[in-house]
Design goal:
heterodimer, A: six-stranded mixed sheet, five-stranded antiparallel sheet, B: mainly beta, four-stranded antiparallel sheet
Chain lengths: 112, 114
């Protein structure tokens, strides 16, 4: 079963705008990760944030984590057409197993 | 390293046939995951291996599915007999340390069962 659920399911913006995607999860986690998937390709890791961290940056990416609300957000600033992809959050579901479960993703379309 | 390598990239087979998907993880990685991706169900975890041992296979849909990891550099996912509802993209991913580190994905195998 999916641990994380992304919101919105789809997002359409213009180049230069910021894109914000949210992820909610159900059980305690040790870390949360964000991945990107271009059409027809495998997933590519973007950023990992641990449960004791509240915010993390990587280039144009900013991730926040609120463990009290069991939610995370991914912000892409100054978006580009090349950012068009699906974005997934993944959690390690603190169940004793170190498995990695994904949500259904947010499909982002950035128009030139 | 060439990354995680999956084969074949595409597979079309008839219902009832046996299908074997293959995965070569990144050298040195000790964890391997098999996922299935469909539009309806998203990315589903099928099975997780750690140090070649199956740790969690609760996601394997039914007995028709089986997975093996005979050594650290090779894993297979077998479907026998295949059914049209098995049509999906199957991904393999490997990590250095379970879900605590970055997962590297292969390019996937697109399976079509007719």
């Amino acid at each position: 079963s999916q641990q994380g659920e992304e919101d919105p399911q789809a997002l359409s913006i213009q180049e230069g705008e910021n894109a914000t995607m949210n992820c909610s999860y159900k059980t305690s986690i040790n870390n949360l990760q964000w991945y990107r998937q271009n059409s027809g390709r495998g997933l590519v890791h973007l950023i990992l944030i641990r449960s004791n961290e509240r915010e993390k940056h990587s280039g144009r990416l900013r991730v926040t984590l609120d463990t009290s609300k069991k939610s995370s957000s991914l912000l892409i600033t100054a978006s580009r057409a090349a950012d068009t992809a699906s974005y997934f959050c993944a959690t390690d579901a603190d169940s004793g197993y170190s498995t990695l479960t994904f949500g259904k993703g947010t499909m982002l379309l950035v128009s030139p | 390293d060439a990354g995680v390598i999956q084969s074949p990239r595409h597979e079309v087979t008839e219902m009832g046939q046996e299908v074997t998907l293959r995965c070569k993880p990144i050298s040195g990685h000790n964890s391997l995951f098999w996922y299935r991706q469909t539009m309806m169900r998203g990315l589903e975890l099928l099975i997780y291996f750690n140090n070649n041992v199956p740790i969690d296979d609760s996601g394997m849909p039914e007995d028709r599915f089986s997975a093996k990891m005979p050594n650290a550099s090779f894993s297979t996912l077998k479907i026998q007999p295949s059914e049209p509802r098995d049509s999906a993209v199957y991904f393999c991913a490997s990590t250095l340390g379970g879900a605590d580190t970055e997962a590297f994905f292969g390019q996937g195998t697109r399976l079509t069962v007719v």
